[in-house]
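Fold description:
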Amino acid sequence: MSRVGMQNATQYGSLTEYAFSKCDHCGKFSVWDSKNKVLIHPKISRSFDLADVPEGLAQDYNEACLILSDSPKASATLSRRCLQAILIDNGYTQRDLSKAIAQIISENKLPQQIADDLDYVRIIGNFAAHPKKDTQTGEIVDVEIGEAEWNIEVLETLFEYLYKGPAQSKRRKEAFEEKFKINKSN
C-alpha cells in the first residue's frame, strides 16, 4: 500500500495487541492475542491416537480440540455432542443426554472416575448450549477454557475405555491365538 493509501486507511489495530514467540525446539513462530491471552496461530491439536475410534466421533473430537482456544463454549458444545454420539454408539439411544448418562452410570459398567466425570461433561455442555445465570450475581455463567479442556480429557478417557482398550485386547488375543496355532502344530 502506498503512503497515500495509508493516509486514507482506517487503522484497526497494531502489532502491540499481539505477542510473538519462537519455539526453541522446532523454530516455528506462534502468535498470541495479548489482551485475551489466547493462541491465535498455530492451531493446536492434541496428540491422542484416534486409530480405534469411529470416524465421526474422531471428527467431532478433533474439531472440539481445534476450537478450544478460540471458543471454549463451542468446544464444550462439540464435546457434549461427541459424548452423546459415544453413548448412542454404545447402545444408549435416549434423545435426552441426561437419561443416557443416568442409564450407563446405573449399570455400573464404567469405572467410578469415568462415571463421575460424565455428568460434569453434560453440565458443562449445557452451560455452553443453554446459558445459565449465577444465582448470586445474576451474570451469565460462561464456560472457561479449563472446563472445556476437561471435557476433551473425559472424551479421551471414554475413547480409551470403550474403543482403544477393547481393540488392543482383541489384537493381542488374535496374535496369541495365531501363535498358539503355530506352536500347536509342531
